[in-house]
Amino acid sequence: MPPRRFVFGRTEDAVHPDTMRAALSEFIATAIFVFAAEGSVLSIGKLYKDTSTGGGLMLVAVAQALAFFVAVAVGFNISGGHVNPAVTFGALIGGHISVIRAVYYWIAQLLGAIVACLLLRITTGGMRPLGFAVGPGIGELQALLLEIVMTFGLVYTFFATAIDPKRGYLGTIAPLAIGFILGANILAGGPFDGAAMNPARAFGPALVGWRWKNHWIYWVGPLIGSGIAGVLYEFVMIPTETPHTHQPLAPEDY
């Protein structure tokens, strides 16, 4: 059995239609998620003037969980339904995606988040996306640790239900399980740092709303958490004798 390793990808992969379709799928899925997720925050804020109440937090968590469930589901058969640069990073660390395809995914995810936030700003009459901020009384290191822990749970769930070759019937409910853990983490961490767990989800509102305070937390935390989850699940939970496959790349006869 060959050792598990990174795959850079062939030069042809960068222009192959399969890669383009996968990147487009990630762009659309991320735009769907960010539009619904950030839109729910703006909508609830407009209706109730305060999203920090228990009811407001619950509504935001449910809306984002459902949106993420749908986004993962619509991209699952084409790109794997990452919808999150941290998930892509975890898959790259685990050797399930080539470096070339990962770069395409990251670009597509960031662009999808930006377009979604621009559309929100246009359709809401110029409302600035709120994005994410560290809550009162919470230090930067505390928020960073929270993002690491929550993203670890999200990516670990992704590996267990969507990537593990022994997942069986769990593969059919992977988008639902991933959406559930996202919503639960928002309920757990929302009041403290907003619970991003997704650099693209944080970047779009930060750029369009121009809110950059503590933004580094929403990159560093998720990438560390996803890297830990990818290494742990791939090299500890999946037996070494299990056949190891990467996401489909361009056919050899291309």
UniProtKB/TrEMBL annotation:
Is Cell wall biogenesis/degradation found in the keyword set?
Answer: no
Disulfide bond is among the record's keywords: no
Q: How does it sit in the membrane?
A: Multi-pass membrane protein
Q: Record's Pfam families?
A: MIP (PF00230)
Subcellular localization is given as: Vacuole membrane
GO-annotated molecular function: water channel activity
Which SUPFAM superfamilies does the UniProt record give? Aquaporin-like (SSF81338)
Annotated Gene Ontology cellular components are: vacuolar membrane
Q: Which controlled-vocabulary keywords does the entry list?
A: Membrane, Repeat, Transmembrane, Transmembrane helix, Transport, Vacuole
Q: Coiled-coil annotation: which residues?
A: none
The record's section on InterPro entries has:
Aquaporin-like, Aquaporin_transptr, MIP, MIP_CS
Q: What PROSITE patterns does the database record attribute to this sequence?
A: MIP
Q: What is its main location?
A: membrane
PANTHER family in UniProt? AQUAPORIN TIP3-2-RELATED (PTHR45665:SF23), AQUAPORIN-8 (PTHR45665)
Could you say which protein family the record assigns here?
Answer: Belongs to the MIP/aquaporin (TC 1.A.8) family. TIP (TC 1.A.8.10) subfamily.
Q: Which NCBIfam families match?
A: MIP
Q: What is this protein called?
A: Aquaporin TIP3-1-like
- Organism for this UniProt entry: Dioscorea cayennensis subsp. rotundata
Q: What is the lineage of its organism?
A: Eukaryota, Viridiplantae, Streptophyta, Embryophyta, Tracheophyta
